[in-house]
Amino acid sequence: MNPEEQSQIYETLYPRRHEIANAWGALMITFNPTLAEAADLHPKLLHAIEHLLKLLIAEPFDARPAQAIGAMLDLLDNVQPEALLQIDELLAREFVVGLAAEQIVLLYPRVTGLIGALGMGCAIGKAERAKTFDMNAMSVMGHDLKTPINAITGFSKVILKGIDGPITEFQQQDLTSIHDAGQKLLTMIDEIFRTAKTDAGKTNLYGDEFDVAALIGDVLHVGQPILARYGQAMNVHCQGELGSMNLDASRVRWVLLGLLYYAARRTTNSTVSLTVTRETVQDTDWFFFTISVAKPVQTPDEVDFWADDKVQVDADIALITSRRFCDELGGNLTTEENKDDLVRCVVRLPAPPAP
């Protein structure tokens, strides 16, 4: 589209921007009458129309910015899919009214691209707003649930300490059971919200310095029973002085245990190895955690074991979540296979500078 064509189309469509916004708003009110009371309906639609008109004649043409426009149109959140199709048809007509036939032929592919990107942006924005609403609602619900449970555990602890007077042995047992049950409920609530935040991609990371060797010992203690369940042996190799790490220890532990689980589910009666090194790459210290499982001589039963859909899905979830946590922690996770290993996962995480 040359500058003259751009100017002619813009001079024809721009004066109609209020008319297009009014037609769009009137159609939306027929689908959702409550929008008639929305004072920001026309300004929001007019703002969207003005940006879409500029994108329509821009060179080179790029429809992707229309997604951002659609994502901001929260007025469309309660509009049903069938109604959105009618809105798309209305915009497609309004964007070519008053143009010559050759201009319509030139412009219509662009109109189609813009409307498609606008609709995609509306869907993305609606999903993000729904996710935010769900997380806010869960936070309020969590506070409402934990407040009375904290009161129960708090008062039971006060009575157990004898502040309100002496208690019998049987009362102490009952109060201890009440206190422990309350603590378990609080832990369950925290786990539910932690899972919800993980699913929403909003993991909270808490950085604190910890000893890497101690963390590996903890992973070994927890991971051995998991591997033994699938007939796996575990070897751990720590090379050199590891020192400390200043990241979220719980997330690092989760990554290593998740990858051990992933490796363990690939086969049976093999050996899973965890190798830990600290290296300097381009003046930056990194920890490398390499998890591999040796390639055994598989029996038909072992092949069927990996073919089980639930086994594969569980292992894939562990791998995907570990990769996301590595990205959030400022590192990365790579996987590969070779002639010696059935699978090999390498986790790279940043380390504080050596003293």
What is this entry, summarized?
This protein has helices spanning 3-13, 17-31, 41-57, 65-72, 81-94, 101-160, 169-199, 212-229, 249-264, 300-307, 309-328, and strands at 208-211, 233-239, 244-247, 271-281, 284-294, 332-336, 341-350. The chain is α+β, with helices and mostly antiparallel strands.
Structural class: alpha+beta
Strand segment count:
7
Main β-sheet, in a few words?
Answer: 5 strands, mixed
Number of helices, counting only DSSP H or I runs of 4 residues or more: 11
Order of helices and strands: HHHHHHHEHEEHEEHHEE
What Rg do the Cα atoms give?
30 Å
- Give the percentage of residues in beta strands: 5-15%
Amino-to-carboxy terminus distance: 62 Å
Number of domains: 2
Strand order of the largest sheet: 2-4-5-7-6
What is the 3D form?
flat
Return the average pLDDT rounded to an integer. Answer: 80
Helix content: 55-70%
| Unreliably modeled segments | 299-309
